Amino acid sequence: MDALGLHRLHFAFTITYHYLFPQLTMGLGLFIVIFKVMAYRRGDAVAADAARFWSKVFGLNFAMGVATGVPMEFQFGAGWSRFSEAAGGVIGQTLAMEGLFAFFLESSFLYLLLFGEKKMSPRAHLGVAVLVFAGSWLSGWFIIVTNAFMQHPVGYTLADDGTIILTDLFAYLTNPWAFWQYLHTMLGSVITAAFVVASISAFYLLSGKHLEHAKKCLGVAVVVGAAATVLVAFPAGDAQAKMVAKHQPVTFAAMEGHFHTEDGAGLVMIGQPNMETLTLDNPIIVPRFLSIMTHQRWDTRIEGLTSFDRSTWPDNVPLLYYAYHVMVGLGTMFMALMGLSLLLLWRKRLFSARPVLWALMLALPLPYVANTAGWLTAELGRQPWIIHGLMRTRDGSTLEVSSGNVLFTLLGYMGLYTVLSALFLVLAMRIIARGPSAAPERPPAEPARGG
């Protein structure tokens, strides 16, 4: 593999591993706020214990996110210096905002969330939880805006030397691509958190531990998860797919495995892309459904891959196709499982339905797979562009770093992240084994001193 391929593999590995952690913290922040509100408004001691327990999980994930996120900033300079030189004046704006505003908001109040409860009033501690949640979601917005510029650049002009100059900060921050991508991404993080909460709660119920807390957490996880699994598909996923079809039609064709232009195109459910014959092997297709979903008309023309210059095709059409269909397939499974769980919860049978509890417990890794497949879809689909329509990926890498140096660094990262993974699993299992704890005791008030 040449240096460019290794640069791409290195950054793909780093960012894929990193995103395992923020996707949980962003979604888990919402659950902590829900439990804190329940505890504050109802005086619910079980909900307060749940908020305290999941705050510990949040803190551990946050620490791992920081440890694995910082190296990506250095990779922009080490592996992608030409991209950084050309576009740094644009993407640097939101990356700086993320660090200065969102990260410091989240990290500053996280300390109070974890260690300040017994020194604060319940209302103040609830406010801290809201600020931590807001910081994590604001961080997500700045990162999504950065990525949205690479997908659909707006608010810029090109200098004579090829440098990209930001001319409209407001247009950049309100990129229409960013809105739907952000909603889709954040709902994906809520789904991850919902399944993590549901999985661990189901484990407690199946093992007969922390039953009262497990029922409370599982009930909230199923309600929130059921709503998120629907909303992530419609309107968020639907609108995002239409955005891709409008601005990146070649990407849309590759995602759908649509090789040839067709009026009234069918929606592919199953099939294997054959790049030699430019067809799908063993396809199962719903007739005309792709046209109606995309344009709300049965006979609308959908351009196929062969209608575009092959130099503009995504580099790996089969991987893009499979990543997209894995995301959609798992999303459909999530909707079904959470829908069934919600029905059983409504009928007051969920906590004794052992097959469903087993399914929820074993489903824990699947949202991580789905979110990773979703990001692969977005990033593979943008290829061969690092900034769509402006800069090709091959023109953004650092030429001075050899393939050997990149490979050496990649192996070093893999070794370090293996150690971090082992440490994370040990600490996470220790938190889960201890389970929810009782509220910390407040220090006794000092007796009044008489004269």
Using brief descriptors, characterize the structure shown:
mainly alpha, 14 helices, 7% strand, globular, disordered C terminus
Explain this structure.
With 451 residues, the protein is mainly alpha-helical. The protein has one domain (3-261, 303-434). 69% of the residues lie in helices and 7% in strands. It has 14 helices and 8 strands. The protein has helices at 3-18, 22-42, 45-78, 81-115, 122-151, 169-173, 176-207, 211-247, 249-256, 289-295, 317-346, 354-362, 366-382, 403-434; strands spanning 156-158, 164-166, 262-263, 267-274, 279-286, 301-302, 385-387, 391-392. The strands form 4 sheets. Strands 1-2 form a two-stranded antiparallel sheet. A two-stranded antiparallel sheet has the order 3-6. A hairpin with a 5-residue loop joins β1 (156-158) and β2 (164-166). The longest helix is centred in the middle third of the chain and has 37 residues, at 211-247. It is globular. The termini are far apart. Mean pLDDT is 91; it is low at 443-451.
Brief characterization of the structure:
This protein has 451 residues and is mainly alpha-helical. 69% of the residues lie in helices and 7% in strands. It has helices spanning 3-18, 22-42, 45-78, 81-115, 122-151, 169-173, 176-207, 211-247, 249-256, 289-295, 317-346, 354-362, 366-382, 403-434, and strands spanning 156-158, 164-166, 262-263, 267-274, 279-286, 301-302, 385-387, 391-392.
Report the C-alpha radius of gyration, rounded: 24 Å
The number of distinct structural domains comes to 1
Biggest sheet layout: 2 strands, antiparallel
On the 0-100 scale, what is the average pLDDT?
A: 91
> What's the arrangement of strands in the largest beta sheet?
1-2
H/E order of the elements?
Answer: HHHHHEEHHHHEEEHEHHHEEH
Which regions contain 5 or more consecutive residues with pLDDT less than 50?
443-451
Query: Which band does the percent of strand residues land in?
Result: 5-15%
Distance between the termini: 84 Å
Oligomeric state? single chain
Number of DSSP helices?
14
The strand count comes to: 8
Helix percent reads 55-70%
Give the structural class.
mainly alpha
Rough outline: globular
